[in-house]
Design goal:
The chain is built from nine helices and eleven strands. It is elongated. It has two domains: 101 residues, GIY-YIG endonuclease (3-Layer(aba) Sandwich), CATH 3.40.1440; 176 residues, ph1033 like fold, CATH 3.10.590. By secondary structure, the chain is α+β, with helices and mostly antiparallel strands.
Length: 318
């Protein structure tokens, strides 16, 4: 019997925590192996009897996945796929990460359709010959849509040093991924590129953004609707930017029919856009190799710009 009510409650809490922990750590990662050549052809994660679930399928179906086709071929030989658990006692997140690591390593020989969770944290297989931002050097070079409209305008962004996105998490979430030191190229729809700057603070809610010790709401804004929904999940989020070059929208740089990069996405990598970056360098009179940190000056983006042929440069019209 417990000596005090407190000790009984504490004991119950500890037992409950242990049970919850055991429950959370009951995931595993498994592999399917072809017994004809002992090659892995599928990785998965699960708990309980999940690893056997792939053996249940319609024998007469013609709409089989590649995995199911291999299992059928194995069974026709009078064999069964070898199923082995290769990691156990994991949380679901740990299992997902182990699964993704194995899929990344053996992706080309597997039947997994999905690239798996955490895919954005892994280097694309076809980029091993390049130095990529976020993988081989700390900061990235990104295109960011200004998104001028009912809740934001470029003039405010330019004057007060920020870029903004919001009115739904699907718009603000990409902006939140920008890190301090990232270089951004601002694009204004129907005008062109209007600025190049470096992120100096990660994104915050609009009502938490200050300029020279004054909250943004106390400043003279061209678009005061930026504060709409500021106290809920649809709030605008602002990332602070030190503008290296910023122009009025009337002076935006753009050349039609020159295959310059643009997208409707809020944020996009410019790693493979040497043609566009060269144009921006020439028009704005700057060098991305100088803007990026000195120890990152040999990144693939800078190298790609340097490798542009004279014909490509002439095609840009500079």
């Amino acid at each position: 019997m417990c000596s005090t009510t407190l000790s009984c409650n504490t004991l119950a809490f500890m037992i409950g925590n242990r049970k919850t922990k055991r429950k959370m750590e009951n995931f595993y990662v498994y592999v399917y192996i072809d017994p004809r050549n002992y090659e892995e052809f599928y990785y998965g994660k699960g708990k309980g009897s999940r690893k056997e679930a792939h053996l249940k399928f319609d024998e007469n179906s013609d709409n089989d996945s590649e995995k199911t086709k291999i299992i059928k071929e194995i069974k026709k030989e009078g064999l069964e796929p070898i199923i082995k658990v290769i990691a156990k006692g994991l949380t679901e997140k740990e299992a997902l990460l182990v699964e993704k690591t194995l899929i990344w390593k053996l992706g080309k020989t597997l039947t997994n359709k999905s690239s798996g969770h955490f895919a954005e944290k892994f280097r694309p297989h076809n980029k091993l010959h390049l130095n990529l931002s976020g993988f081989d050097f700390e900061n990235g070079l990104y295109y960011v849509n200004v998104g001028e409209g009912d809740h934001r305008c470029w003039e405010d962004c330019k004057q007060y040093g920020f870029l903004s996105a919001g009115q739904h998490p699907k718009w603000s979430d990409p902006l939140k991924t920008l890190e301090i030191g990232d270089v951004v190229v601002a694009y204004l729809k129907n005008h062109g590129y209007v600025g190049v700057g470096r992120v100096s603070e990660k994104a915050v809610r609009v009502n938490e953004f200050w300029v020279n010790n004054r909250p943004l709401k106390d400043l003279d804004l061209k678009q005061p609707n930026i504060f709409e929904n500021s106290h809920n999940i649809n709030s605008e989020f602002l990332v602070r930017v030190n503008w290296i070059k910023a122009v009025d929208k009337e002076s935006a740089i753009w050349k039609k029919k020159h295959q310059l990069f643009t997208t409707q996405l809020i944020k996009a990598s410019l790693d493979n856009q040497a043609h566009t970056l060269y144009y921006i360098e020439k028009e704005f009179g700057l060098k991305f190799s100088e803007i990026l940190h000195e120890n990152e000056g040999n990144n693939s983006t800078v190298k790609q710009i340097k490798k542009l042929s004279e014909e490509e440069k002439k095609a840009i019209g500079i």
